Amino acid sequence: MSVLHIYKSEPDELTKELAKAVSDGNTLEFKLYEGNVDYEELVKKIFEYDKVICWW
């Protein structure tokens, strides 16, 4: 199952561990906190992946 992780802020260690625990293969991290976000690409990825998890 493919999982897309969307991060609004830089993840702490607990968040990283939780993200790793729910991921079992094809994953992508989309980091909104890094600036210059391509929202068209984000929407495209949301529909490509089986599961999307948003992290605050």
Any overview of this molecule?
Helices cover about 35% and strands about 25% of the residues. With about 55 residues, it is α/β, with parallel strands linked by helices. It has one domain (about 5-55). A three-stranded parallel beta sheet has the order 2-1-3, with helices on both faces. Helix 1 links the parallel strand 1 and strand 2.
Summarize the entry for a quick read.
Helices cover 36% and strands 27% of the residues.
What is the CA–CA distance across the termini? 22 Å
Say how many strands there are.
3
Strand count, sense and barrel status of the largest sheet are: 3 strands, parallel
- Give the spatial strand order of the biggest sheet: 2-1-3
Number of domains: 1
N to C succession of SSEs: EHEHE
Residue-averaged pLDDT, rounded? 94
Radius of gyration: 11 Å
Number of helices: 2
Helix content: 25-40%
Please state roughly what percent of the residues sit in beta strands, choosing from under 5%, 5-15%, 15-25%, 25-35%, 35-45% or over 45%: 25-35%
Label the structural class: alpha/beta
Shape, per Cα inertia axes:
flat
Low confidence ranges: none
Question: Helices and strands in order, then pairings?
Answer:
Layout: E1 3-7, H1 13-22, E2 27-31, H2 39-48, E3 51-55
Any descriptors?
three-stranded parallel beta sheet, alpha/beta, 2 helices, 3 strands, 56 residues, single chain
